[in-house]
Design goal:
Elements: H1 2-13, E1 17-19, H2 35-44, E2 46-48, E3 54-55, H3 63-66, H4 68-73, H5 76-83, E4 88-90, E5 93-99, E6 108-117, E7 120-130
Parallel strand pairs: 3-5
Antiparallel strand pairs: 1-2, 4-5, 5-6, 6-7
């Protein structure tokens, strides 16, 4: 019995990805129509435990199209409240990376990118990016 309990504890602690639920979940703090995005993130948003990467779910490819009106109406602080700390924060943009294994040397990944002017969103992009050496 102890052996089984030990194995369950070890297998749970070895998971590479953890659900990352939005900290900002009150509908009154979000633009109208964003409650469905919160539900989507609660079910599908998984961050790698140690690397700046999120688990690739097929549904992530359509997040911009499905929730575009909500995404473009968010502020910079609301993006962080919903999606967490960005994987890449560079020159006025936040990028969240997706991969099914999140290797150390991430040469290609799907992404969701928010471009800002101050606190407001200029645009939201998603797609695939690859790098070669």
């Amino acid at each position: 019995m102890r052996w089984l309990l030990l194995m369950l504890v070890l297998s749970a602690s070895c998971k590479s990805y953890v659900h990352q639920q939005p900290k900002l979940q009150q509908a009154s703090l979000l633009p109208t129509g964003c409650e469905y995005l919160v539900d989507f993130l609660n079910k599908n948003w998984k961050k790698h435990r140690t690397r700046p990467c999120h688990y690739y779910e097929r549904e992530m490819l359509s997040i911009n199209e499905r929730y575009h009106d909500c995404l473009v109406s968010l502020t910079q602080s609301q993006v962080v409240g919903l999606f967490g700390k960005p994987d890449i924060n560079f020159e006025g943009s936040y990028t969240y990376r997706f991969h099914n294994t999140c290797p150390k040397d991430l040469r290609g990944f799907f992404f969701l990118k928010f471009n800002f002017r101050g606190e407001n969103i200029l645009s939201v992009e998603n797609g695939y990016m690859s790098f070669s050496h």
